[in-house]
Amino acid sequence: MIKSELVQRMAARNPHLYQRDVENIVDAILDEITAGLARGERVELRGFGAFSTKQRSARTGRNPRTGDQVPVVEKVVPFFKTGKEMRERLNKPPHV
Amino acid sequence: MSEQKIGRHSARTITRADLSEAVYQRVGLSRTESSDLVQTVLDEICDAAARGETVKLSSFGSFVVRSKGQRIGRNPKTGVEVPILPRRVMVFKPSNVLKSRINGGAANGSDKD
Question: Are A38 and B104 an interchain contact pair (Cβ–Cβ within 8 Å)?
Answer without folding.
Answer: yes
